[in-house]
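U., I forgot to send this yesterday:
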Amino acid sequence: MPGTVRDASGVGRFHGVTLENGVAAPEKEKVVLVKKEGGSHWFRRFCPCCCRTQSSFDIPEKEVEGKEEEKLGDSSRIFSKMGQNRKEHHTDLYYSNDLIIRRGQMFQMEIELSRPFCPNTDRLHLELKTGSLPLVSKGTHVIIPLVDELEDNCWEAKIVEQYNKKIKLYVNSPSNALIGKYSLAIALQGTEGEETKTHESGKDIYMLFNPWSEEDTVYMESEDEKKEYVLNDTGRLYYGTEKQIGARTWNFGQFDQDILEACLYILDKSEVLASGRRNPVIVVRVISAMINSPDDQGVLEGNWSGNYAGGTSPTAWSGSVDILRKYYKEDGMPVKYGQCWVFSGVTTTVLRCLGIPCRSVTNFQSAHDTDVSLTTDVYFDENMEPIHHLNSDSVWNFHVWNDCWMARPDLPPGMGGWQAVDSTPQETSQGTFRCGPASIAAIRNGQVYLKHDTPFIFAEVNSDKIYWQRNADGTFCQIHCEKKAVGHFISTKAVGSDKREDVTHLYKYPEDSEEERIAVETAIRYGSKPDAYSSPTADDVRVEVQLEGEGPRMGSDAKLKILVKNLSSHPRKTTLHSQVAVMYYTGVLKGTVKKDKTPVELMPNEEKTIDWVLPYNQYQDQLVDQAALMLTLSGRVSETQQVLASQTSFRLRTPDINIKPEGEAVVGKQMSAKITFTNPLPCTLRKVVLRIEGLGLRDLHPIEIGDVGRHATVTVTEHFIPSLVGTRKLVASLDCKQLTQVHGVSDIDVREQ
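Result:
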């Protein structure tokens, strides 16, 4: 178990409490919690799809003789993952056999006593406790009384059936109950004046958010969407560039062994009090901070340096389970290393595990606004050379964050639904590296004054890119404005399939539409440069960069086409400056590898194509993670003084890993998969490691391949024994300093033996 947390707000550190009133009871009672299959007509109004015909008790009696103390008997059946409570609460997929339920929904329990319960003289109530200092006033110590009739949305219990020494209870919880781990006890008092005895069960009850309950703020109506955004334990993450969108499978694994405990441990380590865990806005904001590590020893340590000594390369991870399990087992030591898609994948796992609908989302051409101007600013000197030390704003090739679903009663009406949350540490929010939740509806309409961190996310998806040139006196003037430079092809996995769904329309209105311009102008008024826009200049020459097919491949010359168009009825002349730099996917440039100047003369309405080539030998020793490059074009039209400015990012495509299953896919029966990879480079890859994992197939298994020669093909055979039925995904990724983002996936349909 993890060690002691740093404050008194941790869930799951319990102490038994005994309530005493009067003299000792003359008869010792034994309480047995068991799980009973069965339902009732009354129960149908909570979960009609799960009701069954009511059955009579068939639990064998347990006689008590010679007992010195009261204590609970065998309670295993009520806590079984196959029990009716778990099925009706959609928690039967969790690995644990504990009672895992969702708030705002009735659950059942049975109690067996050593003598019949008499409603006229006996008194009974249940107690739940959570947090390090349970208090009734804070909602962390819950006393659940017996009532004659159950009412919705409050803590209460009702005896619905009694037979001899056994009673069956229906227990209600409110839709705003604290989520977390509770200890369970039963308090009993016999005839008036008897001492009240509290029986600790020794079992924990886990309470989660409930997207199936209309009263819960995370309620989601669509069953297909709940199946995808809460119950699906695998997904797809998107990366690359807007013209070369790549996809990789990610194992979220929110139901795996230790993951629920790890998620609650993360809340334990945070500074949020247990009493604050009823509000999904607070919980999501805490998770956003705790997934990264700069200021709170959170789950993942970010690393964008390219040097991953002492940890795992971010591109080598293919799931969240090993990250969360390692963090939990090692007493909260940050796991090395993560980048944006890893932070997002882990966030999806944690929020789905806690019951909040969540998905990973990728924004291509994602701006990073560093001065709250809500614009992305690029500065040039008098000779149109970039001034790198001033260009603190950047545009990432892609950035991955999360959408989570909830109502927002703290915001004006209409702001509920999908909320953006970003766990990658970029800028601080109220002194902590966190971001969100920000209403996507507010982002779309430019309402950046609404919390939390809406201005930052608005700039990521819809800021204008403004180019500035330094004057002789040191001042700057605006020379160009790109209104469509950021926020392209915002992508997430589609519901019920592995297809990519474009959700750009949720974040912004169509480019150049009146609504989109109004949203931008609304947002800019709240930024640090509200008067950034200059009067329009002549704008009749266009520059565009085109990729052929899926773009250049790693190991070959990179070839692009530059299209220059004259839209006027007059000749135009310019000199096109081009420079290409190796770039981290975050938009930070490592260094320039090639510069050119190309004179261009255009006749009226003429279009010219310039073939641009970057030889392999010029970039082979320069690349960093993601194999991304940035081509910057600039120039000035002689006749009109129009400034041409454009930046295009592209990546060098890497090969896929091919996975071919062999043999029958049957639970408990060994099978194998043949895994093949070809080195695309004309040089030897050093210290290659192949990482293989699959939920329900096998745990993470690194295979040391060693060196792989130029253009050589490697094939390995992996043996494993499936443990879960259904369509499972076997995922492979390559860990190699010279070649990143190499991975593959294969669907394996596993059947019962």
